[in-house]
Design goal:
Blueprint: E1 11-18, E2 21-29, E3 34-39, E4 60-65, H1 84-98, E5 103-108, H2 110-121, E6 126-132, H3 139-146, H4 152-159, H5 163-181, H6 191-208, H7 219-222, E7 231-236, H8 245-253, E8 257-262, H9 272-288
Parallel strand pairs: 3-4, 3-5, 5-6, 6-7, 7-8
Antiparallel strand pairs: 1-2, 2-4
Helix pairs in contact: 1-2, 4-5, 4-6, 5-6
Amino acid sequence: MTLYAGRPPFRSWTLDAGQGHRLHVDEWGAPNGRPALLLHGGPGSGCSPLLRRFFDPARYRVIGLDQRGAGRSVPRGETAHNDTGHLLADLRSLRRRLGLARWLVVGGSWGATLALAHALDEPQAVAGLLLRALFLPRQPDIDAFFAGGPPLAALAAGLDGGSAERRRCALAWWRHELQRCGGELEAEPSGEALDALVDRYRVQAHYLLQRCWLDEPPLLQRCTALPPVPTLLLHARDDRVCPPAAAMSLLALCPHARLQWIELGGHDPAQPAMAAAMVSALDAFAANGDFETPPPR
């Protein structure tokens, strides 16, 4: 199954979140289509153009927000006034600004984490949850990601150091992440691309050191209160960034959720089997308001 064609947004604008943060918002697809909130990963990554290509632009109005310190939001890489509580407040402000009662919430990796937190924060606003490669900010999961690589605390300290030290630490993190993802060796980023990577990892380290402010009480424990809306988890069995056990743990607490395994996908949303599963699920939701694909006539 192919992705939908990449189209430019029909509207781009800025949400003034206060405390010096100005958040970039793009809207794609049909202005009168089914509203869908797209939450990017990281934290700190920003909305990739790939992610909107899972959605049928004739049937969805996709709202993509670059979270605080991420993507085209400014100031990029800023960690002050930047935590999960602030992000949840930003989502409440965004929905009110758009005048939307409910939206489908779609997120991958950290975006799936934030989607869960948002559903617990505003259950009445969520029409459905599509969660790809769920990340749970538990200390064992964080430790497992950095095992065999540079320690998180050392990377965080270096990313707040001088210019050369920041770039060295960003490249060390990038190499380790690429290895965990099973990706092929690429040309190392440099110049502006490397500076953007520094800012991305500064935000990510800031969140991971605090377990994303989602452990008192633990996010998973709170998920028994998720709204009983259509919920689909897509997870690759060989994901070495977000352990598949996270999806199984959530499924055990949410009897209304469904888990679909992708046999070989790693952590890459563009991997063909994962991309096909995303497109299929979103097509079904656009048609039926749930993720069950209707049988062929």
